[in-house]
Task: structure prediction
Amino acid sequence: MAEQAEPQEFDVVVVGGGTGGYSCALRAAGLGLSVALVERDLVGGTCLHRGCVPSKAMLHAATIAESVEEGARRWGLHASLESVDAKALAAARDDIVGRNYKGLLGHLAHDGVTIVEGDARVTSPRTVLVGPVPGKAGGEHAPQAELRARRGLVLAMGSVPRQLPGLAPDGANVVTSDEATRLNRLPASALVVGAGSVGVEFASLYRAFGAEVTLVEMLDSVLPAEDPDVSREVAAALRRKGTKVLVGARVEDVKVTDQGVEATVRTPQGAEQVKAELMLVAVGRAAVSQGMGLEELGVRTDRGYVVPADWDHLESSVPGVHVVGDLLPPPSLALAHASFAEGMLVAETLAGQAPAPIRYEGVARATYSLPEAASVGLSEPDARARGADVVVNRFPLSGVARGLIYGQGGMVKVVAEKGGPVLGVHLVGPHVTELIAEGMLITNWEALPSEVAELVHPHPSLSEAVGEAHLTLAGRRLHQQAR
Result:
């Protein structure tokens, strides 16, 4: 049994070193507080090591692959993609992750954050017991550490991929995003289950590198959380590129074989048999809160999520215990950039400041598929459900010169209140995950379409489409034809 080390005191103790946890630690340290950051695996969490960063690195390579094909098809550039060196691609991906990780560790050290490696259990609203990580070599004899937080304890344990009942990932034939972002091979065929952001991104990635892809979604649209026009536009683009998209469908009877998987997919039209080298399960994520001592402490949870008693300060039902990141239930978004904001808010609260509460409707959502999709604010159905007298304009990216140059289709959709502010901006097309920042400012500053229409956008640019969509709503239509 590991011996007990002397207790250590800090102003703030953060349990979990993902985006929410480390951003809280950095901000608290920057405000002059002493901080301990407890992490059982790798600081940076899912986003850096198994999510956002490695997947977007591979999607960048996939974009290059698609550009080779486009160059030959549209521009007379006589080149072809002969093959993909999957190991070289993985090495470039891992180098990017490694450099990010090294930079983060350096930043934490520079700011004086104490990193404590181990498995944490909360023993009181101000104390955490840190022991060895089960199964981790070399740690079984490390002494247990008791960390005491003078100002507050922050829960940031994150989440893990959900699994299909009765089908555990094996890391080879059946994988989650955790394994998919670390594979050193590319499948010749893939069955992707779940058409949220993760599923759509990996379906795009595999298809760009030549795989035969089947994308299955239980609900009746891809990206079901997005505006229906976004869902339709993305689904149409996936199908144009050769991905088989099955919505309102469910995977049954999965068999793992020497060649991969065989599955029955039940669709509204009947059953289909799908064979694939790789099956990616992308059916959401589950919060990591079990076995932490939260129930004994009286922290209110719901399906594993820690439910704040005070959303303005993200404080749990136990005073002094705060929560950030994927542990939060909706309306939190389980997005890395939302976690950054949550971590900073909690740090500033513990430092005695009065930060503005997070308005989750004003946080942009981004899917890095091919094509990309991005949105902020209310969808058209949500706006109507809230009783707003809604006006909508849908402007095609092909309506501006830069959109024609890219030749990938896409659209800008603006949802506004009649005579009032813009309620939502929804985009599909190349680089729209960068373009959504303008939509974020428009919706958060409650701009009127007429106010946005007064702003002059550069020509030729994709941002012109955002300006043109607002021009039409403001009654100053320029390039958009009357309908």
Q: What stands out?
A: The mean pLDDT is 96. Residues 371-473 form a domain with the Enolase-like; domain 1 fold (CATH 3.30.390.30).
